[in-house]
Amino acid sequence: MKVIILGCGGSAGVPMLGGEDGRGIWGDCDPYEPRNIRTRASIFIQMDDGEGILVDTGPDVRAQLLAHGISAFKSIFYTHAHADHIAGLDEVRGINRVVQQPLKAYGTPTVLEEIQTRFSYVFKPWTPPHFFRAVVEAHPVPLAGDVVIGGYKLSLFEQSHGRIPSSGLRCGDFAYSTDVVELPERSLQVLSGVDTWVVDCFQKQPHSAHAWLERVLEWKEQIKPRRLILTHMGTDMDWAWMQDNLPEGVEAAWDGLTLTRPDPERG
User: Fold this and answer.
1) Peptide bond into 129 cis (omega under 30)
2) By its UniProt entry, which SMART domains does this protein fall under (predicted)?
3) Alpha helix locations (H) across 177-258?
4) Residue 112 Cα distances to 51, 120, 123, 161, angstroms
């Protein structure tokens, strides 16, 4: 199994729009360090048999897929329905044309209903043989529990993202937790024994909807993953600073980081 970090930035990316010259707001991030350039948070899970699962379709998804040569998959998993995780849904029309079928969109009933209110035309039945629009089929899944996506078992777990819940996922000994500020005890139990955990860490100071560095380090002591990788990072999280200050076993993601893990069991 291969996991590609397509994007590891917060909702506005890094740099954010604006700045004195109109070329971006970098905050504490060095603009001359390429690994500080962050598109919106997303990952792609590629199984050894070719099965692929895209996690979220943010506004940068077209460029992300092109950058990594990803053009064929049949499943999308949605962690939640905020715009920085769904706004690129139209772009999967190109994938429809490659695989010649509708894609399956997985998420909680609430998440899928909200996405359908914004992209109702995408969920209309396909009229073969052409794709003049993106076409996906809704497949509701629970907020927590085991599900089968693309023939593989994933363990979903509940997360608090401030005012709304979001879904974390575990796939074999890999786990992904974007947009999370609190984890209930039962979710910590799902994460027990995980080897590699990619987790939200928006900034150094406390935040109402996103984990921050101290909280993530507390989780590390509880869960004890071998490798903990920070994602969904804002302009507070400079690459060089993290290289110099993060403790052993904790590292920063960058757009394009690729992780290799054993394939999980098939469902």
Assistant:
1) yes
2) Lactamase_B
3) 185-191, 213-223, 239-245
4) 22, 10, 10, 17
- Order across the sheet with 152-161: list the strands: 145-149, 152-161, 164-171, 174-177, 196-200, 227-231, 250-252
Output the domain CATH number for residue 206: 3.60.15.10
Q: Are 234 and 14 in contact (CB under 8 A)?
A: yes
Between CA 43 and CA 79 the distance in angstroms is: 11
41 within some domain: yes
| pTM (two decimals) | 0.97
Q: Report the distance separating Cα 15 and Cα 27, nearest Å.
A: 8
Query: Do the Cβ atoms of 19 and 5 come closer than 8 Å?
Result: no
In this predicted model, what pLDDT tens digit does every residue of 20-69 receive, in sequence order?
999 999 999 999 999 999 999 999 999 999 999 999 999 999 999 999 99
List the structure tokens of 224.
């004890």
* Cα–Cα dist 257/85, whole Å: 19
Q: Please write the tens of the pLDDT for every residue from 180-219.
A: 999 999 999 999 999 999 999 999 999 999 999 999 999 9
Domain annotation covers residue 236: yes
DSSP conformation class of 43: E
Q: How far apart are CA 62 and CA 230, in angstroms?
A: 23
The tens digit of pLDDT for each residue in 85-142 reads 999 999 999 999 999 999 999 999 999 999 999 999 999 999 999 999 999 999 999 9
CA distance 149 to 138: 13
The reply to whether 239 falls in a domain is: yes
Residue 265 domain flag: no
Domain count, the chain: 1
